[in-house]
Amino acid sequence: MEQVQEQQVFSMPRIGDPAPEFKAVTTQGPINFPADYKGSWVILFSHPADFTPVCTSEFMTFATMEDKFAQANTKLVGLSVDGLYSHIAWLRTIKEKIEYKGMKDVEVNFPLIEDISMEVAKKYGMIQPSEATTKAVRAVFFIDPKGVIRAIIYYPLSLGRNFDELYRVTIALQAADEFDIATPADWRPGDDVIISPAGSCGTAKDRMEGKDSKVDDCKDWFFCTRKLDKDKVLNAILKK
Predict the structure, then answer these.
(1) In this structure, which topology does domain 180-238 adopt according to CATH?
(2) Is 138 helix (H, G, I), strand (E, B) or coil?
(3) Active-site residue among 55, 201, 218, 224?
(4) pTM for this structure?
(5) What radius of gyration do the chain's Cα atoms show?
(6) Domain at 22-161, CATH class
(7) Where are the domains of the chain?
(8) Is 55 assigned a catalytic role?
(9) Stretch (H or E) spanning 77
């Protein structure tokens, strides 16, 4: 009788879920995640392997932007299924030998998790069997100061990430919390923001007649915007 091999299921946490907890060894010492990062936003991201070119370009970019993310109360944590000594050797090579887009002598100071067992990668659904069974895809998790997952972006092994977008998402998420608004397509600080649709017919009527102080312009009852000054956004977020 033919045996049916049980297929392993790789789950993935969802937006709004608490970030799965783990303890790990990193290039910056042991961490207890997400407890060690309470009060800060975190970008937890995975890369397929050390000593690979796309990953190298990404780590150099993240490292050069670390201060920029830090100003927005956001910390970076990387992961791959390689070992600690591989991580250390790779990061040393990046600093000593690699130059890319004007970046050189780049030192990576944020933690890079050792995950040889793939325990963390599996908890976060970073292993996608159709892409590779032994490498993590390029996953990005945005985790808020309460340890809740607020956004997730996945890229295949062949595609490097857009770091302007990662920073834009970081600022937009915090702006949404700070000002109780939503952000439209391609939003950046200084652009108009979206005010959620009215909850009652009376309020909808007020909006259309320009009597709602929360909005500046309504194209229809469901599409209302408000001006939000760029400096107001950045001062509220970058002061943290």
Answers:
(1) Antioxidant, Horf6; Chain A, domain 2 (3.30.1020)
(2) strand
(3) 55
(4) 0.89
(5) 21
(6) alpha beta
(7) 22-161, 180-238
(8) yes
(9) strand 74-80
